[in-house]
Design goal:
This protein has 133 residues and is mainly β. The protein has one domain. It is built from one helix and ten strands; from the N terminus they run E-E-E-E-E-E-E-E-E-H-E. The strands form two sheets. A five-stranded antiparallel beta sheet has the order 1-9-5-6-10, covered by helices on one side. Strands 2, 3, 4, 7 and 8 form a five-stranded antiparallel beta sheet that branches. A hairpin with a 3-residue loop joins strand 2 and strand 3. The radius of gyration is 14 Å and the shape is globular.
Length: 133
């Protein structure tokens, strides 16, 4: 993968479901962590014509878990369009207290590549989780 095609971590907004107040929206830099089992979605503008978006959870132990992989073309996402992952009315859930992160990539990433991008190491201990430092 050349440097021009390097995947990047996006600072998308967080939408967190509250049983009392419904959806609450937050700037990603204003949130340190969400509690375990928090229901959430991420939203932002599609910045590049890159076909893959990943939503991952980074918990307090630096364990990275892939929660969603989005094929942008199949989801109808185009550059400049607003996107929400998952779509309206659907929520992701954190397994442990932590912070969701969004990664955009021009190519499909292996678990090892995701771990390196997010400061982790390989090989991962299972097909969907990667233990980082």
């Amino acid at each position: 993968m050349s440097s021009i095609e390097k995947p990047k971590v996006l600072l998308w907004n967080l939408e967190v479901w509250s049983a009392e107040d419904g959806p609450l929206r937050f700037d990603p830099t204003a949130v340190e962590k969400l509690e375990a089992e928090s229901r959430f979605a991420v939203s932002g503008a599609v910045e590049e014509d890159w076909p893959y978006l990943y939503v991952v959870e980074e918990d307090e132990t630096r364990l990275i878990t892939v929660l969603a992989v989005v094929d942008a073309a199949a989801a109808g996402l185009t550059v400049g369009a607003a996107a929400r992952v998952p779509p309206a009315g659907v929520w992701l859930s954190l397994a442990a207290a932590g912070l969701p992160r969004v990664v955009a990539s021009p190519t499909l990433l292996t678990r090892e590549e995701l771990a390196l991008l997010l400061g982790g190491h390989s090989p991962p201990p299972s097909p969907t989780t990667i233990k980082t430092s």
